[in-house]
Amino acid sequence: MAVTGNTLVLAAPPSPARAPRAPRGPLAPYRRLFALPGTRGFTAGNLLARLPMGMFGVSAVMMIAGQRGSYALAGAVTATGLAATALVAPWTARLIDRHGQARIAVPATVIAVLGSLSLIVCVRTGAPAWTLFASYAATATTPNIGGMSRARWTHLLRGSPGAHHTAMSFEQAADELCFMLGPVLAAFLCSVVLPEAGTLAAAVLLLTGMLVFTSCRATQPPVTAGPRQGSPLRALGPLLPLFLATGVVFGSMEIASIAHLDDLGLGAASGPVLALQAAGSCAAGLLYGTLRPRGLRTCLIAMAAAMALPWAAAATGSLLPLACALLLAGMATAPTMVTAMSRVHARTPEGRLNEGMTLAVTAIFAGISLGAATAGTLVDHLGPATAYALPAAAALLALAAPKVVPVSGTRDVP
């Protein structure tokens, strides 16, 4: 009520401000996740920089084989790059933990991009073969963008285990999406545009994405001053055999599927069937992020059971059962990887998360190489259907990996 001159004015009391309605529905955990300030910016850069991870290998093989006429040379160059990455990546991650993401990741990415451009020039100009090996080895400085993104989520969601689980599930789904789309995009560019187009596009995406990612300084984990306590390699020792065996599952499943689909006479049409495994893993990862996390042993049992399905489906000689089996097999891998990566977070010493994540990824890559090589040998000698026994056996080995026990000096999952 107020008096204005000779007029009495009755005014209704102001209504209390309504609290913002919490997001609802199956995607509510992800809406809450990306409502946090700065998360959309670094995620956009993360996805741009992560897509080339599935492009570089395919692009290099198609470019070198197309220009030099040798798949043996192309395979040797990419294998050398993978070996160099296994040696260099943990050191790059250690520098990132010690000096900060922006300070190290940008120059490391520039070196990797220059290596890719050098590879294009050397292939194009007919330079000696050793220059191809040297150029591709320089790409080993590429930072582990997935590890850096997970480190940001861990920093932002400290004390929120449910939100952290959702974030790790999203990251796993992003991995699968990029490794599903990357090879398809690379093959298209190399075959339709230019043999060098895939490598060039991957280099541009990597540099652009990394610049966007590192420009989001507000979400960057702080650098911890003082001496580092504990060794990530020692802390993660019991987990690395599990990641190695999981890598064998991925590498052997891909080779066995390619060979079996070729044996069925699908040829170029085998691409969509191969993508079903990654698509299943991507969908399961997103769904898992909305559910309560399960124990690692439960996830490993489910994965071991699912990996037997393609082996059984291949014995039928029919495409439809195999396609369904690959989809289900892919759906079993994402929960396992999300839960196992949570163990990495729990066991890695404070301030060394990027290094710990990179060690886990390096073990996976080593397993992929071992699985691919072994599956290729089985295909040549016993046939593609029999080669499906390898991912099933590797999943059982992952289940039998040493039990992880708490380690003093490690931190809890946020």
What report would you give on this structure?
The chain is mainly α. Helices cover 73% and strands 1% of the residues. A two-stranded antiparallel sheet has the order 1-2. A hairpin with a 2-residue loop joins strand 1 and strand 2.
Concise description?
The protein has 414 residues and is an all-alpha fold.
Q: How many strand segments?
A: 2
Rg (C-alpha, Å): 24 Å
Kindly report the average pLDDT value: 79
Q: What letter string, H or E per element, gives the SSE order?
A: EEHHHHHHHHHHHHHHHHH
Strand % is: under 5%
Task: Give a topology summary.
Layout: E1 2-4, E2 7-9, H1 28-34, H2 39-50, H3 56-68, H4 71-99, H5 101-125, H6 129-138, H7 145-156, H8 161-193, H9 197-215, H10 232-236, H11 240-263, H12 270-288, H13 296-314, H14 319-347, H15 353-382, H16 384-387, H17 389-399
Helix pairs in contact: 1-8, 2-7, 2-9, 3-4, 3-5, 3-8, 3-9, 4-5, 4-6, 4-15, 5-6, 5-9, 7-8, 7-15, 8-9, 8-12, 8-14, 11-15, 11-17, 12-14, 13-14, 13-17
Q: Which descriptors would you attach to this protein?
A:
disordered C terminus; two-stranded antiparallel ribbon; mainly alpha; 1% strand; 2 strands; 414 residues
